[in-house]
Specification:
Its main location: cytoplasm. By secondary structure, this protein is α+β, with helices and mostly antiparallel strands. Helix content is 32%, strand content 21%. It contains 7 helices and 10 strands. It has helices spanning 4-8, 51-69, 82-95, 117-121, 161-177, 199-206, 226-233, and strands at 20-24, 27-31, 39-44, 72-78, 110-112, 136-141, 147-153, 191-193, 213-216, 219-222. The protein has a 5-stranded mixed beta sheet, covered by helices on one side. Strands 8-10-9 form a 3-stranded antiparallel beta sheet, with no helix packed on it. α5 (161-177) packs across α7. The protein is globular, with a radius of gyration of 20 Å. The termini are far apart. Bound molecules: benzoic acid (BEZ).
């Protein structure tokens, strides 16, 4: 018998993304192996043919090119079957017009997970919210298959896709330039330098000996041009 822990346990930031094989609307996938070398956002939604999910899919599909340009592929999942997924995506394309978006074709794979095998592996079922629908989970997986960020929303709350894009850019900027990014950071904003590792270095920082702007020894920023970030992170 399956335990509550098996249903609700979830991978954590820094873990290897749990492996699975699945059928999707774009053919079979082997995750994360098929995505080696790319960033990928694996996200779940509660159910096909539901309005919040429809608004999310239209938004994500409309932004897909932007994510691909940032080296990031998209993979969706719900606890529905393949034919339901196909019918829903056809309905979105043929019938739904929303916020200026219409004829939206969802080209990224949508996983069929009727057995909940993948949803359980990723802790996408939160039984006190709903025991048969996945919550709105978002896993950001890096090119080595490591989970780098996780966001969870309840059933009633549609996600902010500009924020998901900001996360993908910020994670890559942090890796490329060895910095951290402060609250609400966007490319072009100053970035955070890691804390001083010794009393000597703390003193040097406060004496202005290093090329950074220190408000106090532990809070130092430096400039990082938007063009430099985007040149590094975006494909030509
Ligand atoms: C929706 O996507 O509209 C939705 C799904 C499950 C519960 C509530 C809303």
């Amino acid at each position: 018998m399956e335990t509550q822990q098996e249903i609700t346990s979830m991978p954590r930031i820094g873990d290897k993304a749990p492996e699975f094989k699945a059928v999707t609307t774009q053919g079979n996938i082997h995750f994360p192996n098929d995505y080696k070398g790319d960033w990928v956002i694996l996200f779940s939604h509660p159910a096909d043919f539901t309005p919040v999910c429809t608004s999310e899919f239209m938004t994500f599909a409309t932004m897909e090119e932007k994510f691909l340009k940032a080296n990031c592929k998209l993979v969706g999942l719900s606890i529905d079957g393949l034919y339901s997924h196909i019918a829903w995506l056809r309905s979105i394309k043929d019938k739904i017009e929303y916020r200026g978006m219409k004829n939206v074709e969802v080209k990224f794979p949508l996983i069929e997970d009727i057995t909940m095998e993948v949803a359980k592996k990723y802790g996408m079922i939160q039984p006190n919210e709903d025991s048969t629908k996945a919550v709105r989970a978002v896993f950001f997986v890096d090119p080595k298959g490591i989970i780098r960020a996780i966001i969870y929303y309840p059933l009633s709350l549609g996600r902010n896709f500009d924020e998901l894009y900001r996360v993908i850019i910020a994670l890559q900027a942090a890796d490329a330039f060895g910095v951290a990014t402060p609250a609400d950071w966007e490319p072009g904003d100053d970035v955070i330098i890691g804390p001083a590792g010794s009393c000597g270095s703390a003193e040097d920082r406060m004496q202005g000996k290093e090329d950074m702007d220190c408000k106090d020894w532990y809070f130092c920023t430096r400039k990082l041009d938007k063009d430099v970030v985007l040149k590094k992170v975006l494909k030509k």
